[in-house]
């Protein structure tokens, strides 16, 4: 059980990996405005007790891809190194 009730929110407990054990999806629940989805975390495989919870910070969707194209020419020289250590590490978060 992950309890973010007393400090931060659920994302406080999630780190990046190029081979994540969770996926982030937009969901529409208890919300009538389709422009305001909530983010939901779904496991991609069984996660053991005390195992780090991870997602890929470089999300891929049509919305993020359009945003990435816009900012890529502005900040192409600024690279954030990835330190996830996975076998398929991309070496950079962006």
UniProtKB/TrEMBL annotation:
GO MF annotations, alphabetized: histone H3K9 methyltransferase activity; metal ion binding
A GO CC annotation given for this chain: chromosome
PROSITE patterns from the UniProt entry: POST_SET (PS50868), SET (PS50280)
Keywords attached to this entry: Chromosome, Metal-binding, Methyltransferase, S-adenosyl-L-methionine, Transferase, Zinc
GO annotation (BP), single: methylation
Domain of life assignment: Eukaryota
One matching Pfam family: SET
Gene3D superfamilies: SET domain
Record PANTHER family: HISTONE-LYSINE N-METHYLTRANSFERASE SUV39H, HISTONE-LYSINE N-METHYLTRANSFERASE-RELATED
Protein name, entry field: Putative histone-lysine n-methyltransferase suv39h2-like protein
Organism: Amblyomma americanum (Lone star tick)
């Amino acid at each position: 059980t992950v309890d973010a009730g007393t400090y931060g929110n659920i994302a406080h407990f999630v780190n990046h990996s190029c081979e994540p054990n969770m996926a982030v999806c937009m969901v529409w629940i208890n919300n009538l405005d389709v422009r305001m989805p909530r983010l939901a975390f779904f496991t991609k495989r069984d996660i053991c007790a005390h195992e780090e919870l991870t997602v890929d910070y470089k999300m891929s969707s049509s919305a993020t891809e359009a945003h990435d194209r816009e900012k890529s020419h502005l900040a192409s020289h600024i690279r954030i190194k990835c330190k996830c250590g996975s076998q398929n590490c991309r070496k950079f978060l962006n």
